[in-house]
């Protein structure tokens, strides 16, 4: 009964995390008056304070030293911190520049990018259905490139930075929250320095130019950065990864719907054709992963 209760809680928390990620364009849109770079810097500063404070409360003041004591951790988390900062910056800019649909495309193709990185960097092998998925996704990207005269750079940039981030976090043996804490510590001083420079040179507004409502949203943006990841880390320890893998498509689906229905972005037949290739690839990929997980569970039970 306790295990069922734990799994049920994990499912609810995973769903809440993905829904929060999916609805986040609405939040960043409320901050459209703030330059995108400053939104990201505030996100880094306040999430660093929140995560570092939480880790100090749960694990004591020595959590940072204990985490960095592991081999290769310091420089690898420094690199992953740069990647996630690049991903956040591109994402916030794209949302407030009217490219929500393309950001959703980036997170739709991200799982397939991660599969390719596993083949290239970790020498993993793919079966026939997985290769078909990758080929369909590549066809969709090629179609969009041909139709619009250039690759979907925003989607590819988001998928590549987050895919590389996931690869590094897979290679470094650190808990998800501790890893986020170290990355936040690395990013804290540069982000704070940029914000202070902006305030003293007249391009910032946190001291009164934007109003207390916007200031509050900037501060709470740190919590929105940390809470879904903490919830995700909680869920993956209690819910089968195959289930979490399917649930992750909640976020880009909500982003896509927001882009088309709420923000009114264009979604013509040509763009829909490219998306259909990619959605088909994801359907095959997800179905194959679910079937394989069930087969392994059946063999283990036998």
Automatic annotation (TrEMBL):
Mode of membrane association: Multi-pass membrane protein
Q: Which UniProt keywords apply?
A: Cell membrane, Membrane, Transmembrane, Transmembrane helix, Transport
**Annotated ranges, domain EamA:** 10-145
What protein name is recorded for this chain?
A: EamA family transporter RarD
> Per the UniProt record, which residue ranges are transmembrane?
12-30, 36-57, 73-93, 105-122, 129-146, 152-168, 180-198, 210-234, 246-266, 272-291
Principal location class: membrane
What domain of life is recorded for the organism? Bacteria
- Which organism is the protein's source? Lysobacter stagni
